[in-house]
Amino acid sequence: MLKGKTALVTGSTSGIGLGVALALAREGANIILNGFGDVDGPKAEVAALGVKVGYHGADMSKPADIAAMVAYADAEFGGIDVLVNNAGIQHVAAVQDFPVEKWDAIIAINLSSAFHTTRLALPGMLKKNWGRILNIASVHGLVASAQKSAYVAAKHGLVGFTKSIALETATTGVTVNAICPGWVLTPLVQKQVDALAAKDGVDNDEAKRRLLAEKQPSLQFTTPDELGALAVFLCSDAAVNVRGQAWSMDGGWTAV
Ligand code: NAD
């Protein structure tokens, strides 16, 4: 379905981003990976699917890095057809204790980076009159939790940003949507499982059970594969009229 197209997935060396990148590659899309940590493993996993794979190490908190990554996509891949704004970080603390540099980093990486990638990639999509922008928001783009003020503010902002750009592109072949996962067991969430295990004096399995029981009625983690399948649907022709949505995949979290 996506043969000949190029997808840039930010923060795709791990977790949800890697799951989405693999799902798009299975549909034939060439993939540009981004993110920190091990790069060779994710690159090999994507390359095994028979598509062209590239990597750019842009720090998504830095607009100049983001511009360099989009220039790399233009030069090496002929532009970006599918943009997945996924890179994100978390920090958990009460607002009066929230480190200022963590607030700034979360707003930069989880929200402002999507502005920079979009403003730079959208003109190329409009020229081809085809494009897909998927913003990986969160249930926290729709509802709040205590101790996560920066994350909740950034993700609500990302959902609002999604709606604005969907309106700006409504008569074009470019669609813009957000995906709102509930708990997904990635390194970002494992840190919160570890904190809960330490606080309650329980083992890893019990901490996972308690974390789910608190918020996610299905009592099951959403998976990167499920999110990848949703991303593939949103890239399909059948989804051309899905515009400006914040699509939850949260085991019922926001149904309460
Ligand atoms: P993760 O920690 O597994 O992956 C995060 C990715 O972002 C990694 O590839 C990391 O290297 C990259 N990254 C972090 N800071 C970066 C920076 N400054 N520049 C470039 N790359 C950077 O986390 P995840 O759970 O897969 O999260 C991915 C996205 O999904 C995030 O936006 C997160 O907020 C969102 N999300 C996660 C969950 C969950 O339960 N895990 C739920 C809802 C939304």
UniProtKB/TrEMBL annotation:
Keyword RNA-binding (UniProt): no
Keyword field: Oxidoreductase
GO molecular function per UniProt: 3-hydroxybutyrate dehydrogenase activity
Enzyme superclass (EC): oxidoreductase
Highest taxon, organism lineage: Bacteria
PROSITE patterns from the UniProt entry: ADH_SHORT
Record EC number: 1.1.1.30
Family affiliation: Belongs to the short-chain dehydrogenases/reductases (SDR) family.
Protein name in the entry: 3-hydroxybutyrate dehydrogenase
Organism: Roseateles saccharophilus (Pseudomonas saccharophila)
